C-alpha cells in the first residue's frame, strides 16, 4: 500500500470513528467474535455484499450508505451486549439475527417500515434508538461531543442528553430515558 492509500485508509477510519464511534473494522470484528459469526454471515445479516463488508472493515470505504444497514448494525450491537451479559442465549441470538436480517429499517416512532420488536425489545428501547438515529443523522458523534462540551458549563443537562443519545450506547440511553420518566 502506498502513502496515498495509507492516508486515505486512515482518513476513512477516522471518519468511521466520528460517524459510528469506532472504526468499522473493530466494530465488525467484535460483532463477529461476540455473536459467533464469520464475515460472510455478518454480511448476510446486515444486507451487505461480502466485498462491501470487507471494504468497510479495511477502510477502503468509509460510510455505510443504507440507513437500514446502519439500523441493523445498531441492532446487532445491542444483541451482542445482551449475549455478553447473559440476558440472551446463543439460540435466542440466532433467532434474533434472523429477525434483524429481515428488518427493513424505517421509523419506529411513526410506524413506517418494519422494525424488530420481538424478543423483548421494549417501546422505550425503540424510542431511544429512534432518538439516537435522528441525532446521528444530523451530526457525527465527535461533533455531538464537541457541542455537548460547549454546552456543559451553562446547560449541563442538555450536554448530558447529547452525550448519552448522540454518542453513547443504547443501554446507557435507555437507563437515562427511564431515569427521567415521571
Structure characterization notes:
The protein has 182 residues and is an all-alpha fold. Helix content is 70%, strand content 0%. It has ten helices and no strands. Helix 3 packs across helix 4 (50-58). The radius of gyration is 17 Å and the shape is flat. It starts with a helix and ends with a helix. 25% of the residues are buried. Mean pLDDT is 84; it is low at 106-121.
Summarize the structure.
This protein has 182 residues and is mostly helical.
What distinguishing features does this structure have?
mainly alpha; 182 residues
User: What's the shape?
Assistant: flat
Q: What is the end-to-end distance? A: 56 Å
Average predicted confidence as pLDDT: 84
Helix content: 55-70%
Question: What is this structure's SSE topology?
Answer:
Elements: H1 3-20, H2 24-35, H3 39-46, H4 50-58, H5 67-84, H6 90-102, H7 123-138, H8 141-151, H9 156-167, H10 170-179
Helix pairs in contact: 2-4, 3-4, 5-6, 7-9, 7-10, 8-9
Amino acid at each position: 500500500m502506498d502513502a496515498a492509500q495509507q492516508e486515505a485508509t486512515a482518513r476513512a477510519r477516522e471518519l468511521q470513528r466520528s460517524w459510528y464511534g469506532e472504526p468499522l473494522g473493530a466494530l465488525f470484528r467484535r460483532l463477529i467474535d461476540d455473536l459467533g459469526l464469520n464475515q460472510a454471515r455478518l454480511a448476510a445479516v446486515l444486507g451487505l455484499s461480502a466485498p462491501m463488508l470487507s471494504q468497510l472493515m479495511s477502510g477502503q470505504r468509509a460510510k455505510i450508505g443504507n440507513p437500514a444497514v446502519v439500523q441493523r448494525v445498531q441492532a446487532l450491537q445491542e444483541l451482542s451486549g445482551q449475549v455478553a451479559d447473559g440476558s440472551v442465549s446463543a439460540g435466542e441470538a440466532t433467532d434474533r439475527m434472523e429477525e434483524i436480517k429481515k428488518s427493513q429499517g424505517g421509523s419506529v416512532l411513526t410506524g413506517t417500515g418494519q422494525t424488530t420488536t420481538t424478543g423483548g425489545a421494549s417501546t422505550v428501547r425503540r424510542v431511544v434508538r429512534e432518538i439516537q438515529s435522528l441525532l446521528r443523522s444530523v451530526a457525527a458523534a465527535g461533533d455531538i461531543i464537541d457541542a455537548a462540551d460547549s454546552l456543559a458549563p451553562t446547560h449541563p443537562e442538555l450536554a448530558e442528553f447529547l452525550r448519552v443519545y448522540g454518542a453513547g450506547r443504547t443501554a446507557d440511553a435507555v437507563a437515562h430515558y427511564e431515569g427521567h420518566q415521571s
